Amino acid sequence: MEYTVDREMASCSLVRFGRWISRFKFPYTQAKPFSSPSPFSSSAGLRDADSAAPGGPPPIRVSLTDSAGRGVFATRKIGAGELIHTAKPLVAHPSLSSIHHVCNFCLQKLQRYANVDSDARRASFCSEECEQHSKVFHDVEMEADWSDYDNYCRERGFKYPLLVKRLACMVISGAMSSDHLDILQPSRLSTDMVLELEEGYSLLRKALINANITDERMLFLTQEWYTGVLARIRINAFRIELAGGYEDLHSLAAACVEAEAAVGNAVYMLPSFYNHDCDPNTHIIWINNANAKLKALRDVDPDEELRICYIDASMDYDARQTLLHRGFGFICKCARCSYGD
């Protein structure tokens, strides 16, 4: 099982995000930006730089907070509705129910769906560009038979092992280092959880071995690696819901409910540093594909922390606290919760 409270339990109101940036300890003062492998470094395809609208770098810095580890702060005044920055996924994967209906790379909905019977193993793409970018994982993926692994995920309702599979293929192809997600905070997995994941690890390794992937190319693929990556993905993955042109919050929420727009899941670098608030000043949206946009919900002052809501903000106090504690492992003490609202 996936030991988290999925965003499917909340309404599609742009506030369902599966991560909590926990309490890391770093040798930096709060005023000093967090130093790390840059989330703005550029590489192919979905891993291109997080960026702002044309005109300069994003008006943000990543620093330590007083109580919640890392956070994202404004470096200048940000106006309501302003695009703060965009972000492309480090890794993304369609849901199994959408795999023949969306681009296998950017998750954009296809104009023409693949024939499920004749193209069961063939991936579909929305453009030649996406097909070219997909080579960072697709060539390796196509060498293996994933039917047992996909059935394992389908029967248990798992989504995140699909991201681990794709990440493993990216490492094997040389497009990504095996420790690329180490900067992200992992969730805590109990012994029972780890035992539950053993089958997925065995099926992943079996599929690659049967595809004649050499041991040398799979040196990184230990059970410890599999479990560690899944622990990070578990609380840093976003459920992708396409808005299809709606960028204001209320129209977008209505469109998501009507269209049942969830198409897959993805992990990002910079968006994973945003902390939670039940009355957020920022929201994240996806218009036509997995490229995320983070926009201000209201005016934000310089040095104010930017926060998103991980769950459905319309729930009452008790429901929010229960969901956040069960799903993300913390008791929310934001201003709204402090008033018992």
From TrEMBL:
UniProt-listed SMART domains: SET
Region (Disordered): 34-59
GO cellular component, one term: nucleus
UniProt biased composition (Low complexity): 34-43
Matching CDD domains: SET_SMYD (cd20071)
Gene3D superfamilies: 1.10.220.160, 6.10.140.2220, SET domain
Protein name, as recorded: SET domain-containing protein
Organism phylogeny: Eukaryota, Viridiplantae, Streptophyta, Embryophyta, Tracheophyta
